[in-house]
Every structure is written in C-alpha cells, then in structure tokens.
UniProtKB/TrEMBL annotation, chain A:
Its main location: membrane. Gene3D superfamilies: MetI-like. The chain crosses the membrane at residues 28-47, 90-111, 123-144, 167-188, 225-246, 273-295. It comes from the Bacteria. Keywords: Cell membrane, Membrane, Transmembrane, Transmembrane helix, Transport. It comes from Alkalibacterium thalassium. This is sn-glycerol 3-phosphate transport system permease protein. Pfam families: BPD_transp_1. InterPro entries: ABC_transporter_permease, MetI-like, MetI-like_sf.
From TrEMBL, chain B:
It comes from Alkalibacterium thalassium. This is sn-glycerol 3-phosphate transport system permease protein. It is a multi-pass membrane protein. InterPro entries: MetI-like, MetI-like_sf. Its main location: membrane. Keywords: Cell membrane, Membrane, Transmembrane, Transmembrane helix, Transport.
Length: 302, 298
C-alpha cells in the first residue's frame, strides 16, 4: 500500500491514470481475496466436485470408486421415488406460492393506507421472516398434533394433519407459506408504494371506484415486482428442509419427500453420495434457471 | 392566478357544506376503524403460532393434555424455563449459536465491505467478470453443494468444530451486492480528495467509508445474524456433540429426548426464537431500507 503513495500525491492526472492502473490492479485483487477464497472453497470447488462425483459410484465415505457415466442420472430419472419427489416438490412449491404470496399481498394491502398503529402491524406482518424454520416447525408439531393440538380443538375435527398423506404436504406448505409471508409483505409493500400516486388522484377525479382503481391501477403497477417475488418464493420453497425434516421426515410414505429432503436421505441415511450428487445437480439446474429469470426481471425493474 | 387570490373572500361554510365535510370525516373515521379491526384480526392470525408457543410453554404438563382449547394457561409455570435448561445444555447451545452468528456477521461485514470497495472504487481488468462470478454464487443453492461441502470438511478433519460452522459463511454475495449498491451513492470526490491527501485505501475504508455506511452495515448485520442464527441443515450435519451444537439443533433434539415434556420443548423453542425476533424488531428499519436500496427501485 505504501507503494501507491508517491503516485497518488502526484496531481498529474494522465500519469496517475496510466501508471496507477497497473499498480492498483494488484491492490484491487487484494481486497477481493477474503471473499473470493471463501467462494472458491465453499461454493465453486464443491459445486464442480458435485458434478464430478455425480458420474461415479462412491463408497460410504463419499470417495469416487467406479466411473459410471450418466448412470446416476438415468437411475434417478427412471426411479419412481425420484419422480414422486419431483411431483411432491412441485405441488409443495405451488401451495407455498399461493399461500405465502397471497398472505403477503393481503397484509401489504391492509397496510397500504395509514391508520393508527400501522407500525405495530407492519412489524408483525414482516416478523415471520426472522423466525427459524426449525423452531416454528416444532410449534406446529404440537399445534397440529391430533390429540392435544390447537387446530383440531378449535375446528372440532379429529384429523391427523401430519400422519395423513392427504394433509401432510398441505400442513408443511402452510407453515412455509407463513414463513415466507413476512418477506413477501415487505416486497409487496415496496411495490405498492411505488405505484404512481397521481394515477389514483386522476382516477378519483374520474370517479373510478375503489375496486376499479385496484383492478386498473394497483395490479398493473405491481406486475414486475410480482414476478420478482414469485421467483424468489419459488427458489426459497425449493430449498425448504428444516420444517420438513422436523414435521414429517418426508413421510407418511414419501408424500412430503421433497428434493432437498431426498438429497439428505440419499447422502446421509443411505450413504449413496454419487446419487445424491446427481440429484443436487438437478436441483441446481432448476434453481439456476429460476435465478437467471430473477436477474432478468430485476434488470428490467431498474 | 394572482388576480384570483386577491379576490378571495373570507371563507364561510354554509350548513350544507359543513355537513358534507362532516360526513366525509365520519366516513374516513369509519374506514380507519374498519382497517384497524381487520388488521387486528389478521395480526392475531399471523401471531397465533408464536402466541400459542408462549402460552403452551407456560402451562403445566398436565394442562397440555386437556382436550379443550384454552389459549391462556391456568397458572404461569415459569419453572418450565428453568427445567428446560436443566434437561438439555441450553446455555451451551445458546453460547455456541451466539459465537457462530456473531463471527459470521463480522466476517460478512469485513469481507463484504472490502470486496465491494474494490468493485466500486478501484479499477482493474476483469472486475465486472469477477463481480458476475460473485453474483453467480447466488444461483448455486447451498443445498446443492452441501454433500460435497460435508465430505470436504470431513476430509479436512473439521467436523464438529466452530470452524466448520463459521468459515463457509464468512462471505455472501448478497452482502457484497448490498454494500456495492450503497457505495454507488457515495461521492467519489470524497474518495479522490482523501487519496490526494495521501490517505491509503485501507485507512479510507475504515476511517471514512465504513463510518458513513451505517445504514448498509445495519442491514447486512441484521440479515446475516438472523440467517446464521436460524441455520438448520448445515449445523445438523457438522455438529455432532453438545460442545458445538447450535441452539436450533439442540432444541429440535429435545423433541426426542423426552416425549412427555412438550412444555419443556416449547420453552426451548421460545428461548431460541427470542434473540432473532429481538434483533429483527430493533433492526427492522435498517434492514428494510438496505434490502430495498439495491433490489427494488421503481
């Protein structure tokens, strides 16, 4: 760093720019080293290792033993268990989306106009984003308990929410929707506050009623951000793990065995690391495509 | 316009106008009251799982098994909380989580502030390509590399240690992105004049840039701490003993320790939830500002 001193004190711009660039470039990279080292060791390296491993049969310590080409992939794609996992994941994501975004949107609408106490309400609506998925999953395991849980007691039903294959996936998805509703509330609120105020004014001059204002001003104004929120929600729903492991462990049967949970099971219960790696690659492809979509819409926004 | 203003007569409302205005005001008040009412109901729905957890954690074990629903406990069993600490080494878990989350937060702040400084203020070849590579890490979900990371850390002999819990998270693309976005609004003239005065880059960062970046630091800290505190899958895999177990894993294991003591488990859950909620409530404002400085601009 000392090396730079004389050059920088020099006020001749031309000289500084020409020679400064060369000197600076080493320093530029110095500041990047901490971040890039971590990214290299814990994202890039494992990422390529995962792809590499997905072409091998591994021993139970994860060391590549036999090269099998695409066999892990063909095994996966033809196995009914993985197909089920994909279907379950898509169903799960769909329910999470509808609930999480619906609730986030509703709460954002409710806080769109000011009223006394709005700050308390918006804090509460955003709060689920700070709640740990594992912690709240344990609360839900009691709440949904067939015998002592509040839900059956309040509804007067006798459903085993987590042990009945028809309800288990919905139950877990409701919990995830609740968790996501916090950040969705913030995003929708930001979107609503960006809708041009003057449009509402001219609309009320033209005597458009609230419903029409909502339909023709609010909704179109939220088009871009809604797509962005959608993608973020899909990505985060694909990554759910804690709540599923705690509430259902993928069961009953395999009715809540979403992809990430299946990766966990293949790798750390069955010790089939090659297969789990192939599965990870498929997860990456899905999430990667979605992220590219997200960046694109974000660029449009700006 | 000017002529009109001069002609304005003293403004007197006739009865009809006054009643119209009054009706408008009443309408507004009713609307506000309605909004308040609906919001209260929705808020209770959102809060219900949390309130339920607090209430159950204060009930006596016998009361939990009653078949009718009552939100409020008959008598407050504060001893549940003390018992929870006796059943599991919760103190150790909490300390572990605090160490892990704090160090991750500091690490992300430092590595993020430095990297973003380089991206925003310094010139170099391939800077934008490197920045794209940083953002590309957002495309790789942690769950997709978790198997390789686990095996790698096992090979290094890092399993069951603070290193394993902390080091992989010492930087994040989101943090770098937020910092860079914030620096973009920083007057470049200030940087140039500091350099003229012979201020080194590192001094500029720590004495000028960071003290002026409090909003970004606030947002990043809240975000990083909450995420680190709430981590589940990675600590589940790499922490095998009580010595290094984080509180999320520790409390979720109370699930199996003693199936009778639902109350103790929920007391544990409440203890786990408090720090992240507390930090969220104090840091909410800066978090929201920071999150939306970069991502959503209309």
């Amino acid at each position: 760093m000392e090396l730079n001193q004389p050059l920088l004190d020099d006020k001749g711009n031309g000289i500084r720019k020409k020679r400064g660039k060369k000197k600076c470039s080493i320093e530029t990279y110095l500041y990047l080293i901490p971040a890039l080292t971590i990214f290299f060791l814990f994202t890039y390296l494992p990422f390529f290792r995962t792809i590499y491993r997905s072409f091998f049969l591994t021993d139970n310590r994860g060391i590549e033993r036999v090269f099998v080409g695409f066999q892990n992939y063909t095994d996966l794609l033809t196995s009914s268990s993985f197909q089920n996992s994909l279907i379950v994941t898509f169903q799960y994501v769909a329910i999470v989306l509808i609930l999480g975004m619906g609730f986030g949107f509703l709460t954002a609408l409710l806080c769109n106009r000011t009223f006394p106490g709005i700050r308390l309400f918006s804090t509460v609506y955003a709060m689920p984003m700070a709640v740990a998925s594992s912690g709240i999953a344990m609360v839900f395991s009691i709440l949904l308990n067939q015998r002592i849980g509040a839900l059956n007691q309040i509804l007067g039903t006798n459903i085993s929410w987590l042990a009945d294959p028809r309800w288990a996936l919905i139950s877990v998805a409701v919990l995830t929707g609740w968790l996501n509703s916090g950040i969705n509330f913030l995003y929708f609120s930001a979107g609503l506050s960006n809708v041009d105020e003057s449009l509402y004014e001219s609309a009320s001059v033209d005597c458009a009623n609230t419903w029409n204002q909502f339909l023709y001003i609010t909704l179109p104004g939220l088009k871009h951000i809604s797509f962005y929120i959608l993608v973020i929600n899909v990505i985060s729903a694909f990554q759910s793990f804690g709540q599923i492991r705690i509430l259902t462990s993928g069961g009953p049967g395999e009715s809540t065995n979403v992809i990430v949970h299946d990766i966990y099971r293949n790798a750390f219960v069955n010790f089939r690391f090659g297969l789990a790696s192939a599965e990870s690659v498929i997860l990456f492809i899905i999430v990667g495509i979605l992220t590219v979509f997200m960046f694109r819409t974000q660029r449009k926004e700006n | 316009m000017a002529a009109q203003v001069e002609e304005t007569r003293p403004f007197i409302l006739d009865d009809e106008q006054a009643s119209l205005i009054r009706r408008q005001e009443i309408k507004k008040k009713v609307q506000k009251a309605g909004l308040l009412g609906i919001n209260t109901v929705v808020m209770l729905v959102v809060l219900f799982p949390l309130l339920y957890a607090v209430s159950m954690s204060l009930k006596s074990p016998g009361e939990v098994y009653s078949s009718t629903f009552r939100l409020l406990p008959e008598s407050l069993q504060l001893s549940n909380y003390a018992d929870a600490f006796a059943v599991a080494p919760l103190g150790q878990y909490i300390a572990n989580s605090f160490i892990v989350a704090s160090l991750i937060t500091v690490g992300q702040l430092v590595s993020g502030a430095l990297a973003a400084f380089s991206f925003q203020f310094l010139e170099s070849k391939g800077k934008e390509i490197i920045f794209a590579l940083v953002l590309a890490t957002l495309m790789v979900p942690g769950e997709a590399t978790i198997v390789s990371n686990y095996l790698q850390i096992g090979q290094w002999g890092w399993l069951d240690s603070y290193r394993a819990l902390i080091v992989p998270f010492l930087t994040s693309a989101t943090t770098i992105f937020l910092f860079r976005q914030f620096y973009k609004s920083f007057p470049i003239a200030l940087y140039e004049s500091a350099k003229m005065d012979g201020c080194s880059n590192i001094r500029f960062i720590f004495q000028i840039l960071l003290p002026l970046s409090k909003p970004a630091i606030g947002a990043v800290s809240v975000n990083a701490f909450i995420n680190a505190w709430n981590m589940y899958m990675w600590p589940l895999l790499v922490s095998g003993s009580d010595r290094y177990r984080t509180v999320q894993i520790g409390v979720s294991m109370m699930n199996s320790v003693d199936s009778q003591s639902v109350v103790l488990m929920l007391a544990g859950v409440v203890i786990v939830l408090i720090p992240s909620l507390f930090i969220f409530i104090i840091g909410q404002k800066s978090l929201v500002k920071g999150l939306f400085a970069g991502s959503v601009k209309g």
